[in-house]
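Tip: read the tokens left to right.
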């Protein structure tokens, strides 16, 4: 009886050991050819003013807590996007809000009182009215003693149409800052009029409802939302160790916090290779997922990435990061 137990235990151990070895070999990056290319650099809101991230809530006015300015650009403007591409960005991200006349204003906040000299919300204004505002009005680095951009942002809030016309051959990531499915429908109507070649350069992310509405109308467009992220990553965590790629992970975009990334099967090289074959773009963001706008903004941040990393990098300081790679 004891001998039988030993045999069973021995076989069980061997099976478990074989399974562990199989999982290791199937997900190890040791046997994947390391990428020789450069990582993809994404400039968050173009070349923008940065601010202290500590204690930020959903209603925090970040314009009131910027660092001392090191450049003259304001986020989400054509000038800041152009500067980001000139600095070496491969992709520029920008935010959109619907207006009273059913256009999309390129602006981060849904209210305008923090950054501008106006009050209310973007959807209460026409695009022409929003252009009369000074988008640099509220920026201060010294608690309100000085406002270095006041008077310099009049007419600088662009429409999404202007951005798309200005950069027809550049990769852009559009952030829908609402949960209104009607915005996804309207955005689909706008983007469907673009040449197919330009559509292929675009990706859109945002609230679950507008992204679902957009995807229904433009199924070939690369999109991302919390729902699409969960659908892909939960499926991948459960079966990815086998090498199987869930359908939810195909032709999409994933923003992966760097503290969570090592938990993914095959991270980094095997994972990146699988996602590339599935036509899915990977962007790594700083932190643990509590704030998906955290960027790799310094040399010390970059040192946290795996050696020879060739996926996407989210940065708020493309002017600092691009020279490290380009």
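Filled-in amino acids:
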């Amino acid at each position: 009886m004891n001998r039988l137990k030993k045999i069973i235990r021995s076989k069980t151990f061997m099976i478990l050991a074989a399974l562990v070895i199989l999982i290791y070999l199937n997900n190890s990056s040791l046997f994947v050819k390391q990428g020789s290319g450069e990582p993809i650099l994404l400039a968050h809101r173009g070349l923008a003013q940065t601010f202290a991230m500590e204690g930020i809530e959903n209603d925090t006015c970040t314009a009131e807590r910027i660092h001392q300015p090191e450049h003259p650009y304001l986020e989400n403007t054509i000038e800041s996007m152009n500067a980001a591409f000139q600095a070496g960005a491969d992709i520029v991200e920008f935010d959109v809000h619907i207006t009273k006349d059913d256009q999309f204003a390129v602006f981060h906040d849904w209210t305008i009182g923090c950054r501008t000299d106006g009050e209310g919300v973007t959807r209460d204004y026409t695009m022409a009215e929003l252009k009369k505002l000074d988008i640099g009005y509220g920026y201060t680095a010294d608690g309100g003693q000085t406002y270095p951009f006041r008077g310099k942002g009049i007419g600088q809030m662009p429409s999404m149409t202007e951005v798309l016309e200005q950069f027809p051959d550049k990769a852009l990531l559009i952030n829908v800052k609402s949960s209104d499915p009607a915005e996804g429908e309207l955005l689909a109507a706008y983007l469907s009029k673009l040449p197919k070649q330009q559509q292929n350069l675009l990706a859109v992310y945002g609230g679950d409802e507008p992204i679902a509405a957009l995807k229904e109308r433009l199924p070939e467009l690369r999109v991302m939302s919390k729902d699409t992220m969960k659908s892909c990553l939960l499926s991948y965590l459960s079966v990815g160790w086998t090498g199987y790629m869930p359908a939810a992970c195909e032709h999409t975009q994933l923003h992966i916090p760097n503290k969570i990334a090592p938990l993914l099967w095959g991270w980094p090289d095997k994972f990146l290779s699988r996602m590339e074959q599935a036509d899915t773009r990977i962007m790594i963001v700083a932190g643990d997922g509590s704030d998906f706008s955290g960027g790799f903004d310094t040399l010390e941040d970059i040192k946290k990435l795996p050696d020879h990393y060739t996926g996407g990098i989210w940065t708020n300081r493309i002017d600092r990061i691009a020279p490290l790679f380009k």
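The chain has a mean pLDDT of 91. The radius of gyration is 23 Å.
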